[in-house]
Amino acid sequence: MSQYDQGLERQAANHQPMTPISYLQRAALIHPDHIAVIHGRQRHSYARLWADCRRLASALVARGIGRGDTVSVLLSNTPPMIQAHFGVPMAGGAVLHSLNTRSDPATVAFQMDHAETRVLIVDREFSALAAEALAQAKVQPLVIDFDDTEYPDDAPHPKGEPIGSLDYAQFLAAGDPDFEGARPGDEWDAIALNYTSGTTGNPKGVVYHHRGAALMALNNVIHAGLGRHPVYLWTLPMFHCNGWCFPWTLPVQAGTQVCLRWVRAGAIYDAIADHGVTHLCGAPVVMTTLLNAPAGQKRSFPQQVVFNTAAAPPPETVLRAMAEAGFSVTHLYGLTETYGPAVVCEWNPAWDALPAPEQAARKARQGVRYLSLDDLAVMDPDTMQPVPADGRTLGEVMFRGNNVMKGYLKNPEATAEAFAGGWFHSGDLAVMHPDGYLQLKDRSKDIIISGGENISSIEIEEQLYRHPAVAICAVVAMPSEKWGETPCAFVELHEGHELTEAALIAHCRAGLAGYKSPARVVFGALPRTSTGKIQKFALRARAAELAQAPA
User: Fold this and answer.
1) Residue 392 in contact with residue 352, Cβ under 8 Å?
2) pLDDT-based confidence at residue 551 (cuts at 50, 70, 90)
3) What is the number of other CB atoms lying within 10 angstroms of the CB of residue 429?
4) Which Pfam families match (predicted)?
5) What domains does the chain contain, in order, with CATH numbers?
6) What DSSP assignment string belongs to 261-297?
7) Under a CB-based contact definition with an 8 Å cutoff, are residues 403 and 372 in contact?
8) What is the mean predicted confidence (pLDDT) over 54-80?
9) How large is the greatest C-alpha to C-alpha distance in the chain, in angstroms?
10) Which residues on adjacent β-strands are paired with residue 376?
11) How far is CA 214 from CA 181, 192, 293, 446, in A?
12) Rounded to the nearest 10 degrees, what angle do helices 457-465 and 316-324 cross at?
C-alpha cells in the first residue's frame, strides 16, 4: 500500500457520486429568480423548477416508487418533461424512460413491458396512442394525464380525453416542495433508459448512469459554447437520447429552456426573435424547414444562433444559407449508446483562410472526441488495431469512456458483443484523417459492394447535394444480377425546382467514378424517423422492389 493510500480513504466529506441533479440544485440556490423555463405564456423561475422537481419526486415516492423502478413518459417538449429529468431520479433512484411520441402502439407496449413500467405520465395529445398501447401491454402502470393549458388553439388536432386515474397538475401539487429527494448511492446507478430505433426486431434498451449524464452536461457546455445564461430552444425531441442530455445541461450555466411542442418554422423564428435564443439542436431537416420557410414566417434577430446538428453532414450550400440567415452550424456525431453526440467537428482557426468548398469539406467531418470520452478510434474489427490515419482506409468507429452506456437492459449477449475487446463497437464505418479528425463513410450495413468494390453511400450523397436543386437525398444498395449491388438514389428537390433522372446521374458522373454513380434516381418524399433521420431500411426495401420491376 502506498503512503498516498494510508489513512486517505474515500469518505462522504471528500467523495460524492456525480449526478446532474446537483446542477439544478446549485442553479436554484444561486439564481432563484432567473427564468429557467418558458412555455407559451408561462415563465418558471429556477426556484420554482427546483420545487416542482422535488414535488414530483415526493409524489412518486408516496406512490411506492423507488430504486430501479421505471417511470415512463409520453410527453412532448413541455415543462413536465424537464421536471421528469430531475424529479424521477430523485424519487428514490427511479429511472426515467422517455417514449418516442411517434411510435406505434405495439412498440410502446413492448417498451413498457420490457422496462416493467410502474408509472406512465402521458400528454393528452397522445392519449389515443397510450390507450391502445396499454391495451396491448402486460404491465398495468399508474397512469397520470398531463393537460397542457398552453395547448395551441391552432393545433392540428384536439387534445384526447384523459385515460388515467390522476391529473398531473394535481399530482404535482400534492408533492412536497421541500422534499430532500434521493441522490444516487453510486454514480453508476441508472438514471435513464432509452430504446434504440431498431430497424429489425425489437429495439434494445440503452441504460445511462448518473456519472455519464453529469459529464455529458459539462461536455455540452464546453463543446456547444454555452456561456452564462444561454437561451436554448427545444427543436430536438427530449425523448431522443434525453435531448442529447441538454435538460441536464442548461442548469450548469443557469440557462433558459424554451419549450416547443411542434417544429414549425414560424414558431422557431418567433422564439429566436422574442426570447433571444442562442442555441438549438436538430437534424438537417430542421435546417431545411428554416431555410424554406415562407418570407412571412421569417424574422430577423441580432444575435448569432448556434445550431448543433447530427446525422448527414450539411452540404456547402446549406451551410452558406444558414450563415446568411444568422446561424452558426456545428456538426456532431454520436449514438444512443453514447448519450447522443460524443464527437464534435471542432473548428480549427487555421481553416479560416481556406476557400469555401474546402471549409465545407472540413465541416463535413464528424470530428474529434468530447472531453470526457477517453478514446475514439477507427479500428479493424478483426484485429482490433487502429487503421492508418490516411483519410482513405476504412475501419469501424469505436468509443471508450465515461459517456458510453452501462449496457443493454436484460440483454447481456448484446452488451457483450457491443463491448467486445474493451471498446464500444458503433457499427459505423469511417476513415481517420492525419490531423486526427474522424469522417464517417457509412454504416457497416449501408456500404454498397458493387462488382467487389466498396462504395460509400455518403460519398455519393455528398455529390448529389452539390446540385442546387437537391434538398434531401439518401443512397442505398439496389440488388443487381450483374454487379451484385448498385447505388440507388432517393431525392427530394427544393420547392420550385425540376430535374430529370438522367440529368442528376450525369451530375454524379461529373464528380464520381462511373461505378459509384447511381444506377437509378427516384424522386419524391423520403421516409423519416420522428427525429428527422432518413429511414434507409425502408428505402432498401423500395430499391429491392425496383430491381424486381420490369425494365
Assistant:
1) no
2) low
3) 22
4) AMP-binding (PF00501), AMP-binding_C (PF13193)
5) 18-24+31-209 (3.40.50.980), 453-548 (3.30.300.30)
6) SS--HHHHHHHHHHHT--EEEE-HHHHHHHHTS-GGG
7) yes
8) 98
9) 80
10) 399
11) 17, 12, 37, 33
12) 50
